[in-house]
Amino acid sequence: MTNPRPSVSWIGDARSGHLQLIDQTLLPVEYRELACTTVEVVWDAIKMLRVRGAPAIGVAAAYGVVVGCQTDATSTRDQLNSRLQHVVTYLAGSRPTAVNLFWALDRMHRTANSVPNLTSAELLERLLVEAKAIEREDREMCLAMARHGLPLLSRCQGVLTHCNTGGLATAGDGTALAVIFAAAAQNPSLQVYADETRPLLQGARLTAWELMQRGIPATLICDSMAGWVMKEGRVQAVIVGADRIAANGDSANKIGTYSLSILAKAHNIPFYVAAPSSTFDLTIQSGEEIPIEERASTEITNAFGRQTAPDGCRTYNPAFDVAPATHITALITEKGVIQPVTKENIHAMLKS
Ligand code: MRU
Q1: By Cβ atoms counted within 10 A, which residue in 37, 252, 300, 320 is the most buried?
Q2: What pLDDT, on the 0 to 100 scale, is given for residue 4?
Q3: For this structure, is 243 an active site residue?
Q4: Measured between alpha carbons, how far is 150 from 154 in angstroms, rounded to an integer?
Q5: In whole numbers, what is the pLDDT of the chain averaged over residues?
Q6: DSSP string covering 264-302
Q7: pLDDT at 1
Q8: Strands of 33-36's sheet, edge to edge?
Q9: Complete domains list, the chain, with CATH
Q10: pTM, rounded to two decimals
Q11: 272, 148 contact by CB (below 8 A)
């Protein structure tokens, strides 16, 4: 059984409908859905990782714009315009690294600007159409990434992945995990090694759950075991997702990805990054410019309700790191595979 519902969806009409999420902080112990009826609840859901994963954050934010504008559906167009501006700025402050958030908000904003003659009620309808298009396109991009990435994993007996990049992280089947799902369908004995993904355990709580829901052989390892798993010859590829990819191919993803890219290089194992075009940020030249989210120290010292460090212990908790393009064997996008990873090849693929 897979998720009964997509991780993000819209229930109802534009005027009174709402964003419905699977609360990912409760998995795998509890499956509970969350109705987001105000933009504050949407902001909190993104910030607290109830909805997480770059593409899912983008879709949630697009629906968040609709929810946030409902209060002004009967006011003047000028009032709705300024409400929209406020909502977009507010949601943009929830998390800094995944560019899909800003990409989706920008798309919603541009949609509103492109139809100045619509009434407020009509604009709200139009915004919902756009948010639904973002969700649908994301689902389609997942399918296309799986198709393009499949040949890269077709000769693997084992593959390693990090964080969660599946149905929970997107509107469809996922990015890197969708490629793994496709490879497992073709080769049922494929062994999938999932890093637990410290400190919030997206790999253990979410990826292992998704793989097991689909009956795919999943082996959970601690992050620090990845090098040894490679040394033992258990995996022939590493595949991860991304939160933001710079023009030169440097790719930000969940903390630990940088180390994995070095380990893969040291063991001569291909390192793949799967991401839709909404995750590329061609306005920045390299990973140096990617803002890295720093999260609360309690995620390290008190995660999941138990104190695991002395009182007052200093911490450093960057949520993401950047794998340099030189460590990435190929980028898998919905438009095709970019290999070798160069600025020119990225530009050519995304413009195609
Ligand atoms: O902090 P998170 O859980 O939102 O981080 C998610 C990741 O790093 C994913 O690997 C990335 O968003 C790709 S998801 C398809």
Answers
A1: 252
A2: 62
A3: yes
A4: 6
A5: 97
A6: HHHTT--EEEE--GGGEETTSSSGGGS---B--THHHHS
A7: 45
A8: 8-11, 18-22, 33-36
A9: 8-140 (1.20.120.420), 145-350 (3.40.50.10470)
A10: 0.97
A11: no
